[in-house]
Each structure stands twice: as structure tokens, then as C-alpha cells.
Amino acid sequence: MIKSYLVERRSWILLFILLQLFVLFVAFLDAAIPLASLLYLVFLSMIIFSVFLIIRYKKETRFYKSLEESDNNLVLTSIAIPESPFEHIIEKSMASQAALLKQSASQNRTALEQEKDELLAWIHEVKTPLTAMHLMIDRVEDETMKTHLTYEWLRIHLLLDQQLHQRRILFIENDLYIEQTGLETILFTEIKTLQSWCIQKRIGFDIQLEVPEVLSDAKWLAFILRQLLTNAVKYSDAADITIRSYRLADQTVLEVADSGRGIDPRDLPRIFDRGFTSTTIHQDNAATGMGLYLAKKAADSLLIQIDIHSKPGAGTTVTLTFPQKNEFVRITSM
């Protein structure tokens, strides 16, 4: 403690000693100044300064010792003194609540998984009588009745298919198989499903496939095209739907164009939003607002850029721009 005290004040001590030596040096040079008297004064000054240091040391070290003892007491208190009962209750309550929240989140996740599995199982179960119903409809001889029944069957089939893919799309990354996929096969399969509806509305298809194959997942690409073709048929009357593929800037582009009612410009920015339906014909109860939303989600997972251009009364054109092969390689190697 004494050493620390002197070290902290060494500059002042050295200044005082140098001043005393300076006075003696001046008296030594100047014969008119009595050296003995100055030596006596310097001696008294040193004694007084030493007493001053001793007094200040006792006062200041007493203060520092009290601070040090307070710090030691705080450390000892934090180490040795146990938590108060109130702090113990709070800590125990927070730990209990955290455990309950974790357990509740786990139970909710399990319940959601179970609900998803049950819904998927239900959809698959419903598909069996739906298939039988389609076979029964084919036997109906009344063409008008057959057409109406087929249309209603198709609506149920598409809604169930949409619901099925809505549940699966959460885990689409686990369900992808990227390969060279033939566009003609997928398009003809989807058009055949919509055949009765297209005949009823007198809608034809003009297919021009300059690029017959694309790199994609066949199942999810079929789902995307199903949503686009369903919308094109739904909002068109007695006209051809043009489907063409071509190369643009080293990428394959697939274009689906109809001459239906079109989309209002204020609706275009929100067309891919979940549950969004037209603001122009808001009373359209047949629209669920999920088709394009799910198509966009699936397209993003397949690295497909989907764009829509439309004008009211002039039809709608949807373009799918497929990625290059090296883009898939870069994604799968990450």
C-alpha cells in the first residue's frame, strides 16, 4: 500500500525535492546568500513535507481500504450468500414456463403433422369414389346431363388436387426430382383432363413447341400448368388458348396465352397473393385465390420465373422462364 501511494505521487515528490535542490544550488553560486541558513530551511521543509505525506497517507489509505473491503464483501456476498426465496421462486417459475412453452410447441407441431397426414389420407380416400363417379358419368346417355355432371366432377377433382398440393408444398424440397421433362406429354395429359370443360365452352388449343423438353420436376411442373390452364379455360369463351415454347437468351420460355376477360391493372401486383381474388368481379364465388399462389410457390422452388401480362378485355399471357442447367447444379451443391 505504501509503495503504491508513493508511486502515485512520485511526480509531486520529485518536484518538491528538485525545488529544494534548486534553492541550495542558487545559494551555492551566490555568496551573498548564507548557505547554512538555507540548509536549515530546506531541512525543516523536508520534515514538514514528510509529516504531510504521512498524514495524507493515513487519511487516503483509510478511504481506499474501506472501498476494498466493500468490494470484497460484495464478492463474498455474491459467492457465499444464497439466492433469496423470492429470487428462487421467480427463477423456478420462469424455468417452468419455458418448459411448458417448449412442450406446448412440440405438441402443436405434432398435432399439425397429424392433421396434415389425416387430411392427405382423407383426400386420397375421396379420390377413390371420385374415380368411380367418373366411370359412372361416362355411362350416362343424356349428353346434356353428362356434360353438367362431368363439369361438376372436374371442379371437385381440381379442388381436391389443389388441396393436396397445398399440403405437400410445405415439403416440396423433399419431393423434387429434376430431369429432362417432355412438355408435350404433360400438356396433353392436362388438356385431356379439361377436355369436357373445353368442349362445353368451345375452347381449343394452339400448341407450338419449338423446345420440346425442359429441365424440371415433371409432377410439380404439371401442377403449375394445371393451374394456368384451368384459369385460362375458366375465364375464356369460344376461343383458342395458345401454348408455345421458345428459346430466349439461352433460356427456355413457355407461354400460355388466352383471349379471355383479362386482369385489371390494379390487381396484377397482388395476383400471386394467398387468397386474393379479382376486385373487378368480386362476387365470383368459384375463385379460391389459391391457384396462382400455389403455382408461384412451386415455381420458385423449381427456379422458374413466372410472369403475367394482361389487359382487361384483351386476354392474359403467362410466361414461365426455366432456369439453365448450371443454376440447378449451383443450388444442389450448396
UniProtKB/TrEMBL annotation:
GO terms for molecular function: ATP binding; phosphoprotein phosphatase activity; phosphorelay sensor kinase activity. Keywords: ATP-binding, Cell membrane, Kinase, Membrane, Nucleotide-binding, Transferase, Transmembrane, Transmembrane helix, Two-component regulatory system. The keyword Kinase applies. Its main location: membrane. Residues 121-326 form the Histidine kinase domain. Its EC number is 2.7.13.3. It is a multi-pass membrane protein. One of its GO terms (biological process) is cellular response to phosphate starvation. It is an enzyme of class 2 (transferase). It holds the Pfam family HATPase_c. One of its GO terms (cellular component) is plasma membrane. The chain crosses the membrane at residues 12-29, 35-55. The keyword Transmembrane helix applies. It is found in: Cell membrane. It catalyses: ATP + protein L-histidine = ADP + protein N-phospho-L-histidine. Signal peptide: none annotated. InterPro entries: BphY/WalK/GraS-like, HATPase_C_sf, HATPase_dom, His_kinase_dom, Sig_transdc_His_kin-like_C. This is histidine kinase. It comes from Paenibacillus nasutitermitis. The lineage of its organism: Bacteria, Bacillati, Bacillota, Bacilli, Bacillales.
